Amino acid sequence: MLMIIVVAASLLMLAGAYSLFASLYWSRSGNYPKNWKKLFFYSLLAGLLLGLASWLGMFWMLLPYPNIAGEGWFAGFPYMAVYIDASGYHYHFNFTQASVIANAAFWFLLPMASLHVYGRYWHRQQKKPT
After folding, report:
1. 21 to each of 58, 83, 114, how far by Cα in Å?
2. Predicted structure pTM score
3. What is the structure's pLDDT at 100?
4. What SS3 string covers 102-113?
5. Sequence-ordered list of residues with C-beta below 8 angstroms from that of 50, at least 6 positions apart, any chain
6. pLDDT over threshold 80, residue 92
7. Axis crossing angle, helix 2-29 with helix 36-56, rounded to the nearest 10
8. Which DSSP symbol is given to 44?
């Protein structure tokens, strides 16, 4: 189940990154919806706030993970960065710093992924014959 979450989050990050680059391209070509600049600004602002919140609040995003030794928690979503066991010990991994950065990038790009869906819909509506 954890692998499915990581793969889905990675695909959403790719969609958000594609939308960010496509938005910058559309702003040069002038081929974008009328309210695109406002939506782009608000999605960047929401992404900055979400990315900062995920960076600073990683330990408030605890996911329960039961194992043989008892209840444990993973900190960070969707990329698990730290494991906390039942007695409260923190286990850092080799990829902890990369996971924290990936979480911030995911939450920054998530609003751009929704903007990507809107942009694709708008372009399909423009191509339909009337």
Report:
1. 27, 34, 14
2. 0.73
3. 83
4. HHHHHHHHHHHH
5. 107, 108, 110, 111
6. no
7. 140
8. H
Outline where DSSP puts E strands in 1-130: 62-67, 70-75, 82-84, 90-92
Which of 16-25, 26-35, 44-53, 98-107 has the least mean pLDDT? 26-35
**CB of 112 closer than 8 Å to CB of 47:** yes
Whose tokens are 């995920």? That residue is: 54
C-alpha of 4 from chain center: 15
Q: What is the CA radius of gyration of the chain?
A: 18
Looking up tokens 């040069």, which residue turns up?
Answer: 28
- pLDDT (tens digit per residue) in 28-64: 556 777 888 898 899 899 999 998 988 888 777 777 7
